[in-house]
Amino acid sequence: AFLGGSANDVFIFQNTGLLSFGFDGGGGTNTLAGSLGDDVFTITGAAAGSITVDPAGAALVTKFLNINSIDGAQATDDGTKTVGDMGNDVFNINASWAGSLKGGKGNDQFNVAAGVTFGSIKGGDDTGGPYTDTLTALAGTNTWVVNGVGAGANGSSGTLNGSPFIEIQTIT
User: Fold this and answer.
1) Around Cβ 5, how many Cβ atoms within 10 Å?
2) What is the pTM of this model?
3) Which positions ≥6 away from 57 have C-beta within 8 Å?
4) Which residues of 73-90 are buried (b: 16+ CB within 10 A; e: fewer)?
5) Distance CA 125, CA 115 (A)
6) Within 13 Å of residue 146, how many CA atoms lie on the same side as its CB?
7) Among the four 27, 61, 77, 166, which has the fewest Cβ within 10 Å?
């Protein structure tokens, strides 16, 4: 596996390429930044999962470990500034995840398995939209607290299973 160091690392995926052997963020607080296109992030453990990048219909899947934050938006080469991603990203949160999840621009979907918790979800930037970010609690027991309902740029905020979310336009 490709191994990050003990410092904070940012892994940026482009619309081409594949790490068939996966990557491990190592120590530090590590961020995964998605491609400019439509990505699928699947959370399978506390800091583990996979990213599927789909350039021109050819899905490229890479597994990851020790990632603390996932940003669906494209980042610059040095990871200091997030720039416009208009991809429609999907986040499948199948296991509890302590990190943050951010959709960026586009119509993003956050699917949370029953009873699962997460660090935070931010639907993302609606500049140039409007975009519709959706948060779905899958079948089973879930606890919702909705602080504000909004279909505009800021959307709704609240908690799902005690975990905070903001900037979500559709809740199901």
Assistant:
1) 11
2) 0.85
3) none
4) bbbeeeeeebeebbbbbb
5) 27
6) 13
7) 77
Enter the DSSP assignment of 129.
Answer: -
Residue-wise pLDDT for 107-131, tens only, equals: 899 999 999 999 999 987 666 667 8
Query: On the CB side of 55, how many CA atoms lie within 13 Å of its CA?
Result: 10
Residues 125-140 have a mean pLDDT of: 82
12 within 8 A of 75, measured Cβ to Cβ: yes
In the β-sheet with 90-93, what is the strand arrangement from edge to edge? 2-3, 23-24, 60-65, 48-53, 39-45, 90-93, 109-112, 134-137, 170-171
Determine the Cα–Cα distance for residues 83 and 35; give it in Å rounded to an integer.
Answer: 11
